[in-house]
Amino acid sequence: xxxxxxxxxxxxxxxxxxxxxxxxxxxxxxxxxxxxxxxxxxxxxxxxxxxxxxxxxxxxxxxxxxxxxxxxxxxxxxxxxxxxxxxxxxxxxxxxxxxxxxxxxxxxxxxxxxxxxxxxxxxxxxxxxxxxxxxxxxxxxxxxxxxxxxxxxxxxxxxxxxxxxxxxxxxxxxxxxxxxxxxxxxxxxxxxxxxxxxxxxxxxxxxxxxxxxxxxxxxxxxxxxxxxxxxxxxxxxxxxxxxxxxxxxxxxxxxxxxxxxxxx
Length: 264
Description:
This protein is α/β, with parallel strands linked by helices. The protein is globular and about 40 Å long. The chain has one domain (about 5-260): Metal-dependent hydrolases (TIM Barrel, Alpha-Beta Barrel), CATH 3.20.20. The chain is about 40% helix and about 15% strand. Helix 4 runs parallel beside helix 5, helix 5 (about 140-150) runs parallel beside helix 6 (about 165-175) and helix 6 (about 165-175) packs parallel to helix 7 (about 190-200). It has nine helices and eight strands.
C-alpha cells in the first residue's frame, strides 16, 4: 500500500540559496510530510536557478523520495531559455520532467509571444528527452490547446494546479493530458473546479500542493507544504464519493507512471 505523492511542490522557495542550513529546513519539512503519510515529492523548477536548486534538493537522502523537473515558467518567459535547455540535457539521474512551463494570460508578467515561444521550446525538449511535461495554464486554454496541437502533446503530460472549467478539463483530457489538483479545490469560490474534478477519470488524476503557495482549507493563508497534500487528496475523495485509500493509491500510481519513477 502506497503513501501519498505530492506531484508538484517548490521546496526551493523555503530557503535562500541552497546553503546547508536551508537544506536542513527542507529536510525538516519532508520529515513532517513523511510523518503525515507522504513518501514521494516532485520539486519543480521555474527558471535556471530554481531548476538547479530542484536538482540539488533531489539529492537529499531521507524517508521521502525526491525527484525534480527543469523548466522556465511563463512569468519568466522573457529570459533566455537556452541555459535551461542545456541544464535539462545534462539528464541528471533524478530529473523526471520538463516544466513548469506554459501560458499565463492572467498576470502576463512576460509578453504573450515570449510565453508561446518558451512553451513551444519546452514541449520540443520533452519530446527530445522523452520526459514528462508539466504545464501551467491560466486564462489561456485556447492558445494552450493550439500550441499543444501544433507541437504534439508529449505522451506524458499533466496540467498542474488545474483551475479550469469542466469544458477545459474535457478538452485537456481529449488531448491526452492528465489533470493535477491543488488546494484551490477546497476554496469557497471553486465550484466550477469541483465540477471538473468530479468528471476527471480516476486514472488521469493527480494531487499536489504547489507549496509554498495555495495552502488548502483549513490552512489557507499560511505557508503550504507537502504534508498538506493529504488534505487535498482526502477532500478530492470526499468530493468524488470515493474512498480516500482508493484515491491515494490511484493518484500515487498515476504520478509514478507520469514521471516514470523507479520501481520499489
